[in-house]
Amino acid sequence: MHLVNRPLAKLFVRATGVALSAFVLTACGGGGGGSDGGNRNGGGTNPPTPSASAGLTLTGDESAVTGNSVGIVASLSEQGYNRYHWQQLSGPTVDIIAGNGSAGISFDAQFAGDYRFQLTATHRDGSSLEDTFTVSVSAGDTGSRVQLRADRAVSEGADFSLRLNASQYAGGVNSWHFEQLSGPQATLQEDDSGEPVIFVTAPRVEGGDQVLTFRGTLETTAGSVTDIAYVVVQDRPEVTSEYFCDGDGDYCGKSSPLNKVYSYRADSPYRDFIGDCVYSNQLGDDNLCTLGTLPVIGMQSSAPTVDQIMDHVVVSHDWMGSNFERFLEQLDPHSDFANLLRATTAIVISSDVRPSFYWQLTGAIYLDPDSLWLSPEQRDVINEQPDYRSGFGSELNFVTPWRYVKNNNYAFYNYYIADRYSRPFSELEADLGSLLYHELAHANDALSQAKISSGLDRNDIFFNQAQSGSVVNESVTVVNPMVSSELYALAEVRSRGAKATTTQKAYTPSDISGFFFPDSANDFYSYTTPWEDTAMLFEETMMSLRYGIERDIAVTNRPLAPMSADDYKVDRGQRGRIGSERLRARASTAVQGLLPEAWAEADAHLKSILPMALCAGEGWGQNLNPACEGQSGLLRFAAPMPSGAVPMPTERPRSFLPPTRF
Known about the structure:
Strand content: 15-25%
Structural class: alpha+beta
Number of domains: 3
Strand order of the largest sheet: 18-19-20-22-21-28
Radius of gyration: 25 Å
Shape: globular
Number of helices: 15
Number of strands: 28
CATH topology of the largest domain: Immunoglobulin-like
């Protein structure tokens, strides 16, 4: 399949005015491209011949030049191999971050030499296969480079993305295109936002894993520059689960086949079956795991250690578990997350989870690793496919953006992926912290500490035990309950994809402000379910209590072709809404039921929060420092201020709660 001729004028230049060269930085991906009119070291259209041993084949870049990114993927002739260990045997030391722990690795070749690697693939039965692969890297010039990132392993039928990066190219940019060179035919779809990204649905395979090769080409006035990516499609057992579904089933936790995941701790007592319990294409009513097989963490200890928690972590790549472990060790000084994790059976972190969710069926939380990455190499393997809810509510005539702020600035940033930035570990505090407060609110709503303390039946499945007795959101809902029928109906459109009515399409930002601000929700997502209402109250309270971070919520217009955040004009907005009189008691009730250890402190803190109005008529970016003279006061700016550094507003929640049939 060949997708061609997407003009690059807007692909590599952002609305903020960043020059073309800012896009092009080097990092991890498959193969290295040169300014050779389409040919690359190792063969432009003919991928290198694989090196093979019985049952195991390694495929990748046999040769490269310094500055190239290279990749190796492993294919197996039979199913059942669930652990992969890569070891570098010779050559300049490299960090194989992008794939270690999975069947595909990629790295940047910074120095000349022969890089030799050994892979050991271990079967469920304990047997293993080994093979080696050598990449010969020669000294190269400083010519043009492109990188199609990143070489990887995916499940048959799964969705993934490949991004084309470029560096040091000469001439003006004309266009770019992608094509599949070999392997069973995949489905390719270009990104309609104008980014140099291709979205791929892997084909079905039989009789063993199959390797696909893709080529990305950048066409410039000085010639074309190309790179090849290697993707191994893993032959997986047939999808039989009605819960982890291939399609939009009523009870699907996900709507596409699942990545292969594994226990992060090789010595975890649950390593041989934890993935089958919580992230399996065969999960069904007849094989749901009991609490005797996979207990909730709180059944082991009322004050779990990081080691105990990490025994319950399942990942698709090693770095996900490593970053999560470091977060628990260094950024949980109050033990909030350790205590909240008592209500979970597992923590699943996989490159194909988007958005994050908690599932009452399994008792596990499922985290989008976009809140965990630290380097561009780590980010390369995260699927860029849009959140399935992205288009919901597109016919509505308003936007309801939100953000976390501290000292009149963003608490954490949305890094433009093409810039290839790393980010400091400290930023995970607010990014991952807010996500965990939300997902773990759901977990403790379903299985409160009071339920765990009263005793759980180890012979029963998680769902049945969680359903015995009341849930926390029932006690929250009766406190100053939300009353806007209009917003409840709009939640069906915005969060569940219902078709908007003529009346709903006609609502103005002023109409929505009139529904929302007199009511008792702290976010528009709260109208989706009582579960989300409780989680949003808890999340905002804890972010304010622990980090001094406040949440902005607003209603704005929906500009047709926004060029900056200030094209979104605030009709009405509020910072620290959780401190409003009608909301304080609701938030306090949520914390009391979900995290009793923090309740007294949280209750006192809520009384100290003074909500602040955002400036009506000003842009979303200008309102980072809302110093207006009141709702109808004079605006601070005679003309809109530039807001190039301010991210476009988002209104999409970062999580969802799948339905469960029981």
